[in-house]
Write a structure and sequence with these properties.
single chain, eight-stranded mixed sheet, about 25% helix, globular
Length: about 200
């Protein structure tokens, strides 16, 4: 099983999500972001950059995060990606429709673009369907897993732009699960974390 570390800022939603027993079994350590410089990341295989982190703190530690990535490791980033923390992601904001499912003939607009990918042995599209905060138009050749129909990607795997593997998504499951709303986010984490620990990334 891969050793997974999580960047942690002390927020209650992060604490709830990553200390929940069924998820904690996949998390080797919560790394307190302001003290990250004193942490040796070499012992981990995967680093999760949680959503809702202090952007200045993440930026301050980017050299360390990039060094981890370029050592051949995996970085997963959740949530809106306003900052250019990772190469070539070309983030564009989109209006967030929190209540699309209440509309007549409701349709999320999300589509699986690589249904044969190993992740989808662990989750279904419905598990990744609540809302999104923007899209990516990656500059490199990537495996785009979920897209908005006729628009950009909301989840992709990039093995080209660095020496490691980037898994980027505009979804923010740990925020919603940790905040006690959006049931699909629990289903997402139920599958995503086991995949991250044991699946083919």
């Amino acid at each position: 099983m891969r050793k997974i570390a999580v960047l942690y800022s002390g927020s209650s939603h992060q604490h709830r999500s990553f200390t929940e027993p069924k998820y904690k079994q996949y998390i080797a350590e919560l790394l307190y972001l302001p003290k990250l410089a004193a942490t040796d990341l070499d012992t981990f295989d995967v680093l999760i950059v949680s959503s809702q982190l202090h952007q200045g703190q993440v930026t301050r530690h980017l050299d360390q995060i990039h060094a981890f990535l370029n050592s051949g490791k995996t970085v997963v980033a959740f949530g809106a990606q306003h900052q250019s923390w990772f190469p070539g992601h070309r983030w564009e904001s989109r209006p967030t429709n929190f209540w699309w499912w209440l509309e007549p003939s409701a349709k999320s607009g999300l589509v699986l673009t690589k249904p044969e990918h190993d992740l989808f042995r662990y989750i279904q599209l419905e598990d990744a369907t609540w809302h999104y905060h923007g899209v990516f138009f990656p500059e490199q050749e990537v495996e785009s897993l979920i897209e908005i129909e006729n628009d950009g990607s909301i989840m992709y795997v990039d093995k080209k732009s660095t020496q490691g593997t980037l898994v980027l998504t505009t979804l923010d499951p740990e925020y919603h699960y940790g905040s006690y709303f959006m049931p699909a986010t629990e289903q997402f984490l139920d599958g995503f974390l086991p995949w991250l620990a044991n699946g083919h990334i």
